[in-house]
Amino acid sequence: MLTYYLGLSAILFSIGVAGVIVRRNAIIMFMCIELMLNAVNLSFIALSPYAGIEGQVFVFFVIAVAAAEAAVGLAIIIALFRHVESVDVRNFSLLRW
Amino acid sequence: MELDFQTSVDYFWALLPEIVLSLWAMGVLLADVFQKGSRSEASRPAIAWLALAGIAAAAVANVWLMTVTGTGGMIAVDGFRIFANFILLLAAALAILVSMGYLDRHAMNRGEFYVLLMFAVVGMMILASAQDLILLFVGLELMSVAIYVLVGFNRRDPRSGEAALKYFLLGAFASAFLLYGIALVFGATGTTDLALLAETIGTGVQDAPLLLMMGVGLLAVGFAFKVAAMPFHVWTPDAYDGAPTPITALMATGVKAAAFAALLRVFAVSFGGLHETWVVAFWWLAALTMIGANLVALTQGSVKRMLAYSSIAHAGYVLVAVVAANAVGAAAFLFYLLVYTLMTAGAFGIVIANARGDRERVSLEDYAGLGWQQPVMAAAFAIFLLSLAGFPLTGGFIGKLYILRAALAADQVPLAVILVMASLISYFYYLRVVIVMYMRPAPAADTHAGLTASRPLQVAVGVAAIGVILLFFAPAMVLDAAQGSVAGLFIAQEALFGLSRGP
Amino acid sequence: MIESYLPILILLAISVVNAVVILGLTYLVSPYRPTSVKSAPYESGMPGLGGTRDRFSVKFYVVAILFIVFDVETVFLVPWAVAMRDLGWEGFAAAMIFIFILTVGLIYEWKKGALEWD
């Protein structure tokens, strides 16, 4: 049973990684990162009955951190949008990649 | 004082520097917002000095922490933590000093800048001394989130915003890898406590070796992103280039030092039992970073970007000490982080000083003739560059020497050779700046006239320059402190496996 | 264990087939005679007020961010409230420290004017 949960978590995480690499819209890239974090949360919850209660505690912290990251990340995207009028990272080329 | 972490009160004492700094930062935040209300006018200079006083208060609390011992908590109370805290507070103090004039010049003097900086330092201190993976993650994110904002703090400059976005996306991406690694390690061992991890892994019997290996691998990737080791460095030059220069200095010094301290704690201490496995990955990371970063730095026309690649290269040198993973390596590691903090913060201080109005003059040509028109500034820059290159008479030389010794003690001869070769490459681009400063004439007799470094910046650069020189002539004092502070780090591990790598 | 998910799979299959059949039949059978009134977007009988991609004030965004931060606060406070008697005074003190830090943030927002619409 645990294998299925961990497998699902790994698949979700991989989808998130692929999204960050393939997509060029900053907001969608950020959503993919959130997907990765939540995939990890699934792993923590699934492992918790076997490995200990810390797994569930960790999930709370990840949720809180993800919220803080979302607030800051979206603020950065908005601040940049006011200059560039775009959320496509290909248009952000003042600094060379 | 002896702490056993049986009650929560023990945590209050063990976290005193962090608590002092957090409360102080909150106080500064409220003082700033009550002083000027909702009007977004510039903050008074007093806010900056208040922030500096907060760093000093945390340093005092850190001195008091030297009298405390404790084991078994989520936070380490050992010499390594205290030494690391001093480095981080030093990096923060230098960053605040070089910020003062800079923020006025760029019309972004807001109290929030210093508050975020202090919160970032709290995050660094927690990251560097976490004894539990939960706390490590929280400290890492506290540091990162504050730095994301600081990188984009110059809202009028699209470059600043772009740097913030790139740093944010890749930083969050790396955090997710780190977190996944933590989840798998937790699943394989059933604990998030670093000391328990060392024991569980040290026994050599694993229920889920595959899960553990994947977890260690993902953690390595996450940390490699955070310390900007090649090939996980792609965000570094852009983030360093676009960020306000005092924040670039803080990222190159404090953020990197904190991430390295956590890296050493997790890998060299907790995953000590898996040394043979992860050392291969870090060997290649170190070699690639040293050679690659130095080669790319050769091609950079902007001094700020060149310093960014130089900071990547230095991550490679420090990784050599991590690969050595013995007590000599850990002491060399701390010594190098201290020298590196001084010389990098000083070099970025000069980059800040060499500016006219809100335009920084970062191209190589902008430094032509600086040596004759601004002799003090150029001499300080020359000291930092020579130290970064590892020339004798500077602390950078001693730092590299100690890392070489640690590498040889751990039988890492090829890596030591690569380190020397990479340093030789780096001579070209560091010396090029020095030669341009002294050998190439300035376009006009008054090109560099009227470059006025603010008094706090002069203090910061002066302290850094004296520190760099002192560390060459009197390294023993600092090295003894470093050796004493890492003594406790490997004791448990050696008792466990009866192994002692190196002397 | 995995077999118990079979009904869900069947349900999914039926819904997909159902939707495809209905939409497909409509497309094939129904007459298509659009007028400007018929093809206008349906807004509960009201005349439309402009496009859907209008810019709206950044203030909504500030409110949303403040909401997220205080929303996540409950993630910590609800489990604490449920277990408050077991956690005792130590837990109470920890929760109060947490609320104190949030209050500092709230005061900051208030003085900064983020809670006012104008």
Question: How would you describe this protein?
Answer:
The complex is a heterotrimer of chains A (97), B (503) and C (118). Chain A is an all-alpha fold and 97 residues long. Chain A has helices at residues 2-22, 26-51, 54-84. The radius of gyration of chain A is 16 Å and the shape is elongated. Chain A starts with a helix and ends in a 13-residue tail after the last helix. In chain A, 34% of the residues are buried. Chain B is mostly helical and 503 residues long. In chain B, the strands form two sheets. A two-stranded parallel ribbon of chain B has the order 1-2. Chain B has a two-stranded antiparallel ribbon with strand order 3-4. In chain B, helix 2 runs antiparallel to helix 3 (45-65) and helix 13 (303-324) packs parallel to helix 17. Chain B is globular and about 70 Å long. Residues 495-503 of chain B have low confidence and may be disordered. Chain C has one domain (2-112): Methane Monooxygenase Hydroxylase, Chain G, domain 1 (Up-down Bundle), CATH 1.20.58. Chain C has helices at 6-29, 58-82, 84-112. The chains are: A mainly alpha (97), B mainly alpha (503), C mainly alpha (118). Chains in contact: A-B, A-C, B-C.
